[in-house]
Amino acid sequence: MNGMSESLRKELNRQFNHELMAAHHYEALAWWCTHRTLPGFARFFRKQAGEEREHADRIGRHLIDRGVEPRVEALPAPESLPESLLEVARYARRLEQNNSRGIHAAYEAALAARDYPAQVMLHWFIREQVEEEAWTAEMVGRVEAADCAGALLELDRHIEKLLEQREEQGD
Where are the domains of the chain? Predict the structure, then answer.
């Protein structure tokens, strides 16, 4: 295993599967939005699903490079279907908060194992999760504020641009 502790291997594999699960759940949110004629949100959640798969690939590649075979596990189905776009936004926020907790647990395992390569790899994820939690908080706030007639449709038309502008500004 190229010197990787068993506890760190388990944590990284758990997080690898968690990233795949998040992608699966973002796809479900995208289909929910598609069904309700919210194409902007649907595109945005599909983009997020792709990013989560890229995150899983990053962890999987790290494991492979270290001589460890990533183990793909069964993915749990999403929670019960949301009833509103606000519930969808809050669901996405919970996904990212749970993801942050998982990344932190993996980092703690890397610290305990004194595994410097894993720590460096996980630094990227820690920084990424700050951004991920910020955009979901912003999305929840924007959906909550869209409380007049037509506001959700207007938000749907602009959600990708709004959140991309935020990323470009480095917020």
Answer: 6-168
* Phi–psi pair at 38, nearest 5 degrees: -120, 70
137, burial (CB in 10 Å: exposed 0-12, middle 13-18, buried 19+): middle
Q: State the CB neighbour count (10 A cutoff) for residue 84.
A: 11
What's the rounded Cα separation, in Å, for the pair 82 and 91? 8
Reply yes or no on whether the pLDDT at 8 is more than 80. yes
Which tokens sit at 79? 């929670």
Domain boundaries 6-168, corresponding CATH code: 1.20.1260.10
Contact predicate 64/70, CB 8 Å: yes
Asked if residues 92 and 48 have their Cβ atoms less than 8 Å apart, the reply is: yes
Tens digits of residue pLDDT in 100-144? 999 999 999 999 999 999 999 999 999 999 999 999 999 999 999
